[in-house]
């Protein structure tokens, strides 16, 4: 199989997320807490809209897709945050009403999300290291 990596359009992002949720099969605690109900149509759409909004307001975000050259299907992708001039600002995780089933699940997802990268960020700050890019979201290749 040959795969092509290319920029992802807004509509491609939905398919990248669908593939990612399918690949993890609802078994990844981080994905479940931060991006709940991704295996449902409603959950996929809510998470797509959340990430599309983030992509529109943060100019450093760049999406790529991995496409199977033979079938033309998207089989994976990634969301990069390409920080060229400044270190990233830490943004809280949030979503519209109905993203999480209840307030406890929302608070857990937010705490888990905010704890991610704390050690890295501390190391970068203490050593004055530049950040050129970071993979902000997953790269998944699902063979099906």
UniProtKB/TrEMBL annotation:
Highest taxon of source: Eukaryota
The protein, known as: N-acetyltransferase domain-containing protein
């Amino acid at each position: 199989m040959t795969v092509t990596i290319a920029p992802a359009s807004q509509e491609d992002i939905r398919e990248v997320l669908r593939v990612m949720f399918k690949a993890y099969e609802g078994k990844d605690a981080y994905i479940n807490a931060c991006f709940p109900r991704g295996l449902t149509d409603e959950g996929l759409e809510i998470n797509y809209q959340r990430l599309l909004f983030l992509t529109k307001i943060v100019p450093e975000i760049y999406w790529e897709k991995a496409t199977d050259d033979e079938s033309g299907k998207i089989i994976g992708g990634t969301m990069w945050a390409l920080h060229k001039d400044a270190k990233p600002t830490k943004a809280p995780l949030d979503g519209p009403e109905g993203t999480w089933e209840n307030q406890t699940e929302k608070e857990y997802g937010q705490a888990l999300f905010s704890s991610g990268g704390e050690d890295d960020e501390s190391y970068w700050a203490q050593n004055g290291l530049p950040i050129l890019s970071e993979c902000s979201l997953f790269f998944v290749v699902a063979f099906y």
